Amino acid sequence: MKAMSHYLGGRELLGDGGAKVLAGPILILLIMSMLILPLPPFALDMFFTFNIALALMVLLVSMFTLSALDFAAFPAVLLFTTLLRLALNVASTRVVLMEGHEGGAAAGKVIEAFGQFLVGGNFAVGLVVFLILVVINFMVITKGAGRIAEVGARFMLDAMPGKQMAIDADLNAGLIGEEDAKKRRAEVAQEADFYGSMDGASKFVRGDAVAGLVIMAVNIIGGLLIGMLQHDLSFADAGRTYTLLTIGDGLVAQIPALVISTAAGVTVSRVTTDQDVGQQMISQLLMNPRVMILAAGVMGLLGLVPGMPNFVFLLFTAGLAGAAWYLSRAKENRLAEEQIEAAPPPEPEAPEASWDDVQLIDVLGLEVGHRMIPLVDYRQQGELLGRIKSVRKKFAQEVGFLPPVVHIRDNLDLGANTYVVTLKGAEVGRGEAFPGKWLAINPGQVTGDVQGTATQDPAFGLPAVWIEADQREQAQVYGYTVVDASTVVATHLNHLLHHHSGAMLGRQEVQQLLDKLGEDSKALVEDVVPKAVSLTVLQRLLQNLLEEDVSIRDMRTILDTLAEHAGQNADAHELTAQVRVALGRAITHQWFPGQDELHVIGLDSNLEQVLGQALNGGGALEPGLADTLMEQAAAALERQEAAGEPPVLVVQHGLRPLLAHFLRRRLRHLVVMSQAEIPDDRTLRVTSMIGGNA
To answer: Would the pLDDT of 495 be above 60?
Structure first.
């Protein structure tokens, strides 16, 4: 059984994979045997014929490959074919010198046939032709192919870092996957290895040509001496015999060498396209019929010159003219077919409407003009994309919920440098940004003017100027706040997100907040929603808080308050007031961080009484009272801001919802707090008064 397994294992070795593995060692053994062992004439004929066939195969393969890497084994093939040829030269030289005195057939029929065909009874002519073949191979083909290989290797190595960086850039941009990147890197490495190997392998061919000349000299001189001294041949007989064998031996070796050198030149001189060398030559030579018409004209003029072989020249003139006519007709037919194919197809019938035609509105959108596209194009490493991600992350950390994803698209109807921010399909903000320029914002205390395009900061309405990059440092010296175009858009977007945070909080976001809180306080969430309050009431309450710039990060306190008061009153506005009192310390810290004495705007006591009566009467204010209240509130707010104090109005707890709702319509940034929201350890100081003086 073991013997059978061993036998089957040996048979597997001789399969396809095993034969490929054994090909190299067998070739080496053949070469070594030809160098050491004397070969009979028949074996020489077989090996010489195999050498010619191998050279032709290598040339045809190099002609039909589409890229150099398709024949990546060519440097190794070049080495082995050169060794095979040199080994045959050694074996044939041994036979020529040992058996040459017996006649032309002593070294085999192949050598004799090549020698007789080329020499043709004149040894001088044969020697000259042989030397010409050697010179063509050595000086022309081999030298040119070696130079191309050297330059190609140098250029390929110089281009490797750039190709690797291009692959990494495509990978980082997401244009290709990891597998494609590995494949492209391997191709670049293979190209470098191939051209480097070809640079060295071209030296084999040059050395082979030199070896051919040396072997020819050894065979002729050695043959003369051996023939005359050892075999008593006359000088003429020895010269005729050994010259015939030497030239035949050299031709049998040099013709395959010339073919292999041509294959090397074809391989390294090709330009990689989707065509092989033959297709490239034919298609590009015969691409333009005008070239053939001009060539036919020149040949025709030469054919009319007296003394010229008129028939031959005129024959080629007619052939070139006919070929040009045929190519022009074929080109016209091809253009006509392309026009027919390019004709617009008949318009199909309009399909029936489906749900795929319904386009849902994006919650948040950013539309940009065409000059702003580089800021939002990931392929151009747009800076605004990263800024928007940072804005959403900062908003989530400060406000307490994750805003929707900002959907960005270009809009050719907008100005080139205009952008529009949309909320649920409606425009909520618009501005201009100039990529490559900087916005110098005047905070109110600048010491000089800068040249540029005057504008306003889109986020806060401050006067600003768009300036060139070289003016940036000068503007900073003058006291301007200088920001780039991406920062301008990101800041404006951040301002709009805070301003419309209540509108962005939907049921889905509220449910996600509850799910996140439920990971740690599951019992609290289940007791409040939906037992105490519904999800709708909770959403309305949170929207009320957001509309008044109150963070909802402390969801635990909000739910605790709802669990305590929701049973007594289910009104969202009343519950909002209770939650604000519970969040009073956080609200106070938001506007007065680290301050024990709070400088606020107060309300005159008489005005408080009037407003209290209006509240008890249904909450409606007389038009005159409303106008007076709004004007005095605006004046008090201006005085408060001029003094550098926070824009905070403190009123009685019962009046806060009414005044907050009324004043927010015109004084959006005025904060209305109740006295119940102020912690007991803080001291109030009224610095501005509505309806009286502080």
So the answer is: yes
